[in-house]
Amino acid sequence: MKQNIKLFLSTLISNNSAIDAGRKKPWYAAIIVFFISILLAVIPSTVIELQKHGDKNFASNTYYAAEATTLFAKDVANGKFGDKLLVYKVDKQSTLLADETVSAYYEFTVENQKIGFAFQYCNNDERIEYYSNAFGPGTSENPGANVSYILFSPDKVYISLLDPSNPSLAKRVLTLPCIDAYKKVGEKDIVNAYEEGSSSSDTINKTWSNWKTLIKNFYNQARLRNAGIQLAVSSAIDAVVVLIMGLMVWILTRGKNNPYHLFSVWHCFATAFWAALTPAILTVGLGFLIQSFASMMFPLLVGVRVMWLTMKSLRPDGSGYAAN
Question: Which residue ranges make up each domain of the chain?
Fold first, then answer.
């Protein structure tokens, strides 16, 4: 037992131990280590995706979304759309009932530049596509209106913000095909988000705070979906990379005069499985430190580890690992 633990720990830093484990330990031990490595490797990218919140997209610059949503919320509260904008439940899921007459457009002037912000209810996905093309951003084929917009459908919310300093470039901060998107947060929902303050700026702050809370709720379903996709894609990529590394070990030991050509295909793959554990552990730490690189950390590190193993311990001259 002590020898097994010692060998297991030594595989984390010793190439020769990783080769020994691949050749001499049971096949199922290598498989277990392989799956543990993949599990560890995907932790940072999955956790980072789960930590994302819709309202964080508006942390730096709202591009007049705060002012526009306040005006829209006030119009809703004042009955501009009557009872055409209504949140109700179907099969325990909140949805939005309206028609395309629920439409609003607000314009702001900053340094003699007009900035547009549109709100539009859409009956289906085709109408969402129609309005997203109509509002912008503009292209050579379709000039568009170059305005920011928030589109609603019975169960979806699409938000696109345009930088006023460069309106031809869209900052699509949120695209939210959400289930139960219109669920109340506390006492607020999309119909009663307006909140009067002691001044116009206080009203904007309070109403926008309500909207950000709702947007955060909008994003919850999309966040879970995105995290699941991230988990599946990262796991598949990491597994394929480790398998490629095992294949590479086998190819590099196939030389006729290579003393390691006696390694079977399984021995080569098992060696790569054992060698993958250290990169996986490093990925857990470094992935959270360098979050923008988290998903690519493991493929890079496992590639470096296996290349180092083959060059140091599986040299063609036989001066590395002592095969027996």
Answer: 2-50+226-313, 57-218
**Beta strands 157-162; 148-152: pairing state:** antiparallel
Question: Measuring CA to CA, how many Å separate 124 from each of 64, 128, 155, 157, 178?
Answer: 27, 6, 9, 11, 14
The secondary structure of residue 317, as a DSSP letter, is T
Q: Of the candidates 198, 200, 263, which has an alpha carbon nearest to the alpha carbon of residue 66?
A: 200
181 neighbors 150 (Cβ within 8 angstroms)? no
The residue behind tokens 């097994």 is 4
176: which 2 tokens?
């939210």
**What values do phi and psi take at 211, rounded to 5?**
-65, -40
Full-model pTM: 0.69
- Calculate the CA 141 to chain-centre distance: 31
DSSP 265-279: HHHHHHHHHHHTHHH
At a CB cut-off of 8 Å and minimum separation 6, what does 177 contact? 155, 156, 222
- CA dist., res. 233 & res. 38, Å (int): 12
Confidence of residue 225 (pLDDT cuts 50, 70, 90): confident
CA distances from 248 to 268, 309, 316 (A): 8, 11, 14
Residue 137, preceding peptide bond in cis (omega within 30° of 0): yes
* 202 vs 142, more confident: 202
CB 274 within 8 A of CB 30: yes
The DSSP bridge pattern shows strands 148-152 and 113-121 to be parallel
Other CB atoms within a 10 A radius of the CB of residue 289 amount to 10
